[in-house]
Amino acid sequence: MGISLTPPAAGAVRAALHQRGKGIGVRLCLSMTGCSGMSYWLEFADELNESEMTFDLDGVRVLVETRHLVYIEGLEIDYVRRENEEGFVISGPNTCKDECECPDSSEAC
């Protein structure tokens, strides 16, 4: 499988869905960012779209557009707590590199 979810990330998704009170999982979205790679983020998912595939990762449903499957190979979704911040960190071979100044070319979810 091309995507993994760490135990802290799975726990954070489950907690957020419970607190929200609805949702079937999270949707993995992406944006093509010029020459530097891809930018990824998560959104709550309330329903499965026809064009999506689901992954059951540690009891969490992650929805991905089938046209984006080629871009998720090797991705890891983690949840990190640092001194003054916390949140999801998505890393992998296609993630955006900060050294490029190219403008975003398109967004998709």
Report on the structure:
This protein has 109 residues and is mainly beta. It has one domain: HesB-like domain (Hypothetical Protein Aq_1857, Chain: A, Sandwich), CATH 2.60.300.12. The chain has one helix and eight strands, in the order E-H-E-E-E-E-E-E-E. The strands form two sheets. Strands 2, 3, 4, 5 and 8 form a five-stranded mixed sheet that branches. Strands 1-6-7 form a three-stranded mixed sheet. A hairpin with a 4-residue loop joins strand 6 (75-81) and strand 7. It is globular and about 35 Å long. The two termini are 20 Å apart. 18% of the residues are buried. Residues 102-109 have low confidence and may be disordered.
Q: Which labels suit this protein?
A:
single chain, 109 residues, mainly beta, Hypothetical Protein Aq_1857, Chain: A, five-stranded mixed sheet, three-stranded mixed sheet, 1 helix, 8 strands, 13% helix, 43% strand, globular, disordered C terminus
**Structural class determined from secondary elements:** mainly beta
- What percentage of residues falls in helices of 4 or more residues? 10-25%
Rg is 14 Å
Taken together, the total number of domains comes to 1
Fraction in beta strands: 35-45%
Total beta strand runs:
8
- Main sheet makeup: 5 strands, mixed
- Would you identify the CATH architecture? Sandwich
- The number of distinct helices, counting runs of at least 4 residues, comes to 1
CATH class bucket: Mainly Beta
Q: Calculate the mean pLDDT score and round it.
A: 85
- SSE string, helices as H and strands as E: EHEEEEEEE
